[in-house]
Every structure is written in structure tokens, then in C-alpha cells.
């Protein structure tokens, strides 16, 4: 099993041989490491100022792999007769993570200026499994990432043409990219193409997927397929991962917290700061009967259900699929207190009497998904008809978008956003709601504040019948 990466000069004053600094592997030495049944070699078939090639070669002991196997379930024959010794499977992804860990993390202590350079690269993988998709699947995965893809279907047996094609391709990628980005993409997509990981897939794999793929996977057209196959179709894990990838703005992070487990610092996602801020407001209000309007897949509902002070919880969404996912997340079919949490489909632009009698309602990252001409209808439904004592609204702060290098063509953080307000625009809207429906409002921020552009998320707490 072999992977080669060939780099040319990324800049006139940067020789191609400097790739060795990024990979933390000297071109003049062969480096070997053993890990269980796999022996990994890193070597340089060529190294010059104009062109440098690094090769990652794996020697796999099939018998030793069976003795240490945890993730795969195969027939007895399949344990010993398989493609592990020669195909670029999840074994290669793990080897990339171990052999090039600092480069994968985007670090280079000796030459930090090399990290963000875009290198002209050619990547060769002579035998890549492409289960349930073939060359077309390979192109669907790599072309959206900017690679020119050559995926030649390999014959089952070159000496017997009548047997047809195998499920393997000879893959060549060409393009310009940061080395860290290339490694992250291979780290995620090789197990996806393999679709038969050799290791146990649990909650840690969700963290790895989001950490390695978050910057590009959230907007990838095959996001759902990548997530499902990377996590071996474990429904609970897939839902969790999709939740964490759903909003592009979640790339914004709060202060560093606990180590991620491989030397990197793990960041607290903005969604967690936002959820904590909403829960704090609800607890401060003394609300017991609470609704999450536009609840999506139920992340906030799960946090509400875990707090006994919220005795009646309602989740609504216009999407039936989202409600089904929320129901699975909450395990409502096994809930010890049936009726405490209720889910139902509802549109926030149409009156719904089931929303009356609430102490508090939350619209978290909802209003920006509504077409501006429909906002007055939403206001009437929430502040006029339902009229809970407390309404909590969160929405992105458009001014903070200068900190997000990857935005959609609209300049917004999410493809479905109809608008994003500045702080002044949000304040004007909130004051208008108060004047029309008899509320007062308190404006807060969520996430790390920039002295020039404020926090990434804006939060408004509306209180009915209370003087400002």
C-alpha cells in the first residue's frame, strides 16, 4: 500500500524540498515505525529544489491484523483473504494521522510560514477501493474540493479482460492546496471510499470527523454520504455529526478548553456558547413551560429535558424530517415521563393555538431563515398570539463575518439565510417589536467579543409588560 505526494516550488524563494520541514520528515532518511500489524515507512524517492516526492508505504501483516482486529466483522476466510495489504483503506488514513501528525494539525515549528502556502501538488494512490460508486464516487468526493481527478478503473485481472472491472481505481489528484488541507481530506475520505473501517467507530470518531473535516465538509455536496460512511452508518453518531456540521458559522469557536487528545487544542463551538446563554436566560426568567420554535434536530430540547425545572417542553419545526431526528435524539419512545416533551409541525408565520400558555419561547438562529416580508407574520404569531412572558431570540451578527473566511456567495454564514443583521439593525427590529406588542428588550452578545465588530451571535431577551 503506497501513497506518494509530489510537490513543486510553492513560491520563487521556497524550494520544493522544504516540504520536509512541513512533514517533519528529513528527505535524507528513511523513517520506519511499527504499530501492531502495520509497519510504516516514510521516504523520498526524489528531492530537489524544483520537485520533491514523499512516499508513505505500509506493510500489513494480514494474520497479525486479524489477531488485533476490533472493528470488522468478516467470515473466517475473509479475515485472511482481503485487500488490506495493498488497497488504500482506513489503515492508510490512520498511518497519515500518525506519520504526519504535526502537518495534519497545521503546525510547523521550524518554518511556520510554510503552513499556509498553497503548494502545487500531485497525489498518487495506485489502488483505492471505491465501494458502491466507482470512479464517479471518487470524483464526487474530490472535485468539489478543487482537485483535478483522474480515477482509472482497474481490471479485475489484466490477463482475463472478460472478467471486467474491479472495485478499485488508480487515483491521481492534481491541484494547489495547503498540505494540511490535503492530509485532512485524505484522512477523512479514504475511510469513506473504503466503507469498511478496520477500527471501532464510536463517539471519538465524531470529534475527529468534525475536527478534520469541519472547514470543508459542512458545505460539501456529499456531506451526508461522507458522514454516514465515515461513521459506519451508526445512526446516532451520524445525527450527532450532522448536527455539528449543520451551521457553517459553528466554525467560530470560543476560548480554548480541554486538549483534544492528540496534542491539539479543542475549541468550544459557538453553538455551545449560544445554548448555554439561552439556558441561562430561561433559568433566570423562572420559566417552567418552554418552547423551542424552529427546534431543528433537538439540540436545545435535549438540554431543556435534562433540567427538571422545565416541566413542560414544546418543540416545533416546519420540517418533518427534523422533528423525526429530534424525536430519536430525545428517545421519546422510551421517555420516563411521557407528555413532558411534545413535538409538532408548525410554521411560525401562521397562528397556532397550541403555542398559547407558554412561560417562554426561544427562536435560536431562526429569524434569519425567514424572508423579510414574512417577518411581520412571525412577529404576530410569536409576540401577538402566543405572547409568552419571555421570548429569547438569537441571530448572527453580520459585522462579525469579517472573521469568517469561508462564507457563501451571498456573504452569509449559511446557504439558507435570507439576511443577517448588523447590531444596529437587530436593535431597530427589537425596538419595533417592543413598540408593537408591549414588550421590553435586553440585548446581549454571545461568543468572544471583538472590540470593533462585537460578538459573533446577538441575543435579545424580550419581556412582556415589563418597563425597559
Strand order of the largest sheet: 2-3-4-1-5-7-6
| Strands, count | 16
CATH class of the largest domain: Alpha Beta
Superfamily at the CATH H level of the largest domain?
Hen1, N-terminal domain
Give the CA-CA distance, first to last residue: 68 Å
Outline the structure in words.
The chain contains 15 helices and 16 strands. It is α+β, with helices and mostly antiparallel strands. It folds into three domains: 2-199, Hen1, N-terminal domain (c-terminal autoproteolytic domain of nucleoporin nup98), CATH 3.30.1610; 202-250, no CATH class; 270-464, Rossmann fold (3-Layer(aba) Sandwich), CATH 3.40.50.150. The protein has a seven-stranded antiparallel beta sheet with strand order 2-3-4-1-5-7-6. A hairpin with a 2-residue loop joins strand 2 (31-35) and strand 3. Helix 8 runs parallel beside helix 10. It starts with a strand and ends with a strand.
Amino acid at each position: 500500500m503506497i501513497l506518494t505526494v509530489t510537490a513543486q516550488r510553492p513560491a520563487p524563494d521556497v524550494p520544493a524540498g522544504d516540504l520536509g520541514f512541513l512533514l517533519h520528515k528529513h528527505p535524507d532518511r528513511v523513517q520506519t515505525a511499527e504499530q501492531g500489524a502495520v509497519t510504516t515507512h516514510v521516504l523520498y524517492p526524489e528531492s530537489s529544489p524544483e520537485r520533491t516526492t514523499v512516499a508513505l508505504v505500509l506493510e500489513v501483516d494480514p494474520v497479525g491484523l486479524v489477531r488485533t482486529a476490533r472493528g470488522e466483522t468478516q467470515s473466517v476466510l475473509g479475515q485472511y483473504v482481503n485487500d488490506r495489504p495493498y488497497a488504500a483503506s482506513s489503515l492508510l488514513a490512520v498511518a497519515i494521522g500518525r506519520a504526519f501528525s504535526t502537518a495534519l494539525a497545521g503546525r510547523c515549528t521550524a518554518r511556520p510560514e510554510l503552513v499556509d502556502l498553497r503548494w502545487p501538488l500531485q497525489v498518487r494512490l495506485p489502488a483505492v477501493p471505491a465501494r458502491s460508486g466507482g470512479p464517479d464516487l471518487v470524483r464526487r468526493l474530490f472535485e468539489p474540493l478543487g482537485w483535478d481527478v483522474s480515477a482509472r478503473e482497474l481490471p479485475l485481472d489484466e490477463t482475463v479482460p472478460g472478467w471486467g472491472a474491479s472495485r478499485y481505481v488508480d487515483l491521481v489528484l492534481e491541484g494547489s492546496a495547503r498540505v494540511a488541507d490535503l492530509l485532512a481530506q485524505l484522512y477523512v475520505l479514504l475511510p469513506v471510499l473504503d466503507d469498511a473501517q478496520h477500527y471501532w467507530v464510536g463517539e471519538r470518531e465524531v470529534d475527529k470527523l468534525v475536527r478534520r473535516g469541519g472547514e470543508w465538509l459542512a458545505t460539501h455536496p456529499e456531506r451526508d454520504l461522507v458522514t454516514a460512511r465515515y461513521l459506519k452508518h451508526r445512526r446516532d453518531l451520524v445525527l450527532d455529526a450532522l448536527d455539528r456540521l449543520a451551521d457553517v458559522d459553528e466554525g467560530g469557536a470560543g476560548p480554548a478548553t480541554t486538549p483534544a487528545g492528540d496534542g491539539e487544542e479543542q475549541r468550544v463551538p459557538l453553538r455551545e456558547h449560544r445554548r448555554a446563554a439561552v439556558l441561562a436566560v430561561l433559568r433566570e426568567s423562572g420559566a417552567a413551560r418552554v418552547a423551542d420554535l424552529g427546534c431543528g434536530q433537538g439540540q436545545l430540547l435535549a438540554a431543556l429535558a435534562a433540567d427538571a425545572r422545565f416541566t413542560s417542553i414544546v418543540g416545533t419545526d416546519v420540517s418533518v424530517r427534523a422533528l423525526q431526528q429530534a424525536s430519536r435524539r430525545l428517545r421519546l419512545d422510551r421517555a420516563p415521563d411521557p407528555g413532558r416533551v411534545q413535538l409538532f409541525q408548525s410554521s411560525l408565520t401562521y397562528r397556532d393555538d397550541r403555542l398559547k400558555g407558554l412561560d417562554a419561547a426561544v427562536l435560536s438562529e431562526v429569524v434569519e431563515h425567514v424572508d423579510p416580508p414574512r417577518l411581520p407574520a412571525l412577529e404576530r404569531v410569536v409576540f401577538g398570539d402566543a405572547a409568552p412572558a419571555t421570548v429569547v431570540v438569537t441571530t448572527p451578527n453580520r459585522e462579525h463575518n469579517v472573521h469568517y473566511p469561508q462564507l457563501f456567495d451571498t456573504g452569509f454564514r449559511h446557504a439558507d439565510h435570507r439576511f443577517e443583521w448588523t447590531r444596529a439593525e437587530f436593535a431597530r427590529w427589537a425596538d419595533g417589536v417592543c413598540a408593537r406588542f408591549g414588550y421590553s428588550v435586553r440585548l446581549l452578545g454571545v461568543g468572544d467579543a471583538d472590540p470593533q465588530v462585537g460578538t459573533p451571535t446577538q441575543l435579545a431577551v424580550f419581556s412582556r409588560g415589563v418597563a425597559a
